[in-house]
Design brief:
The protein is mostly helical. It is about 55% helix and about 0% strand.
Length: about 180
């Protein structure tokens, strides 16, 4: 059975099965004949691949499974920022989802920098100078909350968001809401 085109007005993807006798070779489409995803899509072009609708930076959240505290948050944050900036150039829908991935990754990096600055810089300095007691409760609570985010909550959040991005495509109605703004 021939595969349908991935979006209206396009040919099937390269390497997909077609009826024999079409596109030169039986069962194959030549690479040069493949249609590209348009730069200005309409809602009819959705759902599409994660690369075209901006879910790819969120799927990189699976990199949080690195397994080392700190790196489990740093690696997907940096990957999300870079991939979000790349996919944001594709179309308005990808720009919206990629921009959110950039913001989430940047917020996580700011939280990590804050944690390590407080833990190894500000807190010891303030205790040595006598500005705060060593067992000052607000600093302790803040450091515990930031360490929980850096070590566990942040990476788990990335994995959950990656699962959602991998399983839930951008629908036509969501694409229409984004494109009609």
């Amino acid at each position: 059975m021939p595969q349908q085109a991935p979006y209206p007005g396009s040919a099937a993807r390269p390497g997909s099965v077609q009826p024999p006798g079409q596109a030169g070779q039986p069962g194959r489409i030549p690479q040069e004949g493949a249609a590209r995803f348009p730069a200005h899509p309409t809602p009819a072009h959705f759902p599409t691949s994660p690369k075209n609708d901006g879910r790819f930076p969120w799927i990189l959240g699976f990199l949080a499974l690195v397994g080392f505290p700190g790196l489990s948050l740093l690696v997907p944050s940096l990957a999300g920022i870079i991939a979000g900036a790349i996919v944001a150039r594709r179309n308005r829908v990808a720009r919206r989802l990629g921009g959110r991935a950039i913001l989430f990754g940047a917020a996580n990096i700011v939280l990590m920098i804050s944690f390590f600055t407080l833990l190894f810089g500000v807190h010891p300095w303030a205790v040595d100078r006598g500005y705060i007691p060593e067992e000052w409760l607000p600093a302790t609570i803040l450091l515990i909350a930031l360490s929980a985010w850096v070590a566990f909550i942040g990476p788990i959040t990335y994995v959950v968001l990656a699962i959602i991005a991998a399983s839930k495509k951008v629908t036509r109605s969501k694409a229409a809401r984004i494109l009609n703004r």
